[in-house]
Amino acid sequence: MTEAQREFYAGFKPVEARQPKPPSAPPRAREVPFEQAVQEFLDAWEIKRRAHPAEQDRVQVIRFPGSPFLKITLEGRSVAAFIAAEDGENATLGQYWQGQIYYPNGWHSPAKHARGSVFDDPPDRCMDWHGPRRLR
Length: 136
Known about the structure:
Elements: H1 3-10, H2 34-50, E1 59-62, E2 69-74, E3 78-84, E4 88-90, E5 94-96, E6 100-102, E7 116-117
Antiparallel strand pairs: 1-2, 2-3, 3-6, 4-5, 6-7
């Protein structure tokens, strides 16, 4: 290394490694069982969907073995939402908690960032007649 290079690099300070972000807090305490909260969410969303004349498709809930998410489909043709069925963490979503509602990223996976929770009051506040609201 030449003297000019040493002088150039001497002006830089070493960069400290960033500390990992602490996990965010889980959603509020769950007063009702998960299955009951999901059913209340689906009932409330169904009322909102039936008010719209274009939405007459039947809602189906699918859970594949080993999957941490419930898939909410409209007559098996299109995915309306994903609901986390258990607490967990993955590379795409980061940490997620049971009951969080996600917009679909396609047929097989949820998009990043939860739109709401089935434990919220009212349970369908994050949903429109067609599915989860987009982030703004």
